[in-house]
Amino acid sequence: MSAVGVRQVTGADVLQVLKGVEDPEMPISIVDLGIVEGVAVGEEGAVKVTLMPTFTGCPALEVIEKKVKDALKERLNVADVEVKWTFGGEWSTEKITAEGRVALKSFGIAVSPEPGKVECPYCRSHNVVRESAFGCSLCREIYYCNDCKNPFESMRRLVRVEA
Ligand SMILES: [Zn+2]
Fold first, then answer.
1. 116 lies in some domain
2. What is the pTM of this model?
3. Is residue 62 part of a domain?
């Protein structure tokens, strides 16, 4: 039996908390990054969160898992949390929410609107060159803008790690 005044945690509550969980490598929440595939709350109040990694073998997976569990414990007092990673699907930058795109842009990280087309987040020029294939995280590439002379990062649209 639940204590009086304690209402059952809902999926919406969980999602709300997840919106406050930042990706360790990106300055946006895991919800805005589009890696939250599903949220389920069991009858006993156990929470199950299904996440899709931005690419298989991302070293941040354990960090994200811990952040999700800590946040749900702290904000909703849910201790029974299962984080499940799904490796079947394919994450791409198309899963990033509109809100997430705006936030990334304000941090100087470009999200290409279409493959092969990269826009400078500072001056919107397409006169850019790729400096290196990998940014500080595997999901990003470093570009240099020939017009405003700023280096910036761009999200890799689809991240595939070749074995
Ligand atoms: Zn520029």
1. yes
2. 0.78
3. yes
Say how many Å lie between the CA of residue 101 and the centre of ligand 1.
17
Expressed as residue numbers, the domain containing 132 is 109-155
DSSP string of 110-153, one letter each residue: EE-SBTTB---TTT----EEEEES--SSTTEEEEEETTT--EEE
Residue 112 CA to ligand 1 center (angstroms) comes to 14
- C-alpha 23 to ligand 1 mean position (Å): 26
- What is the whole-number distance in angstroms between the Cα of residue 118 and the centre of ligand 1? 11
pLDDT above 90: residue 72: yes
Distance, CA 157 to ligand 1 centroid (Å)? 20
**Tally of domains in the chain:** 2
Task: List pLDDT tens digits, range 17-46.
Answer: 999 999 887 889 999 999 999 999 998 889
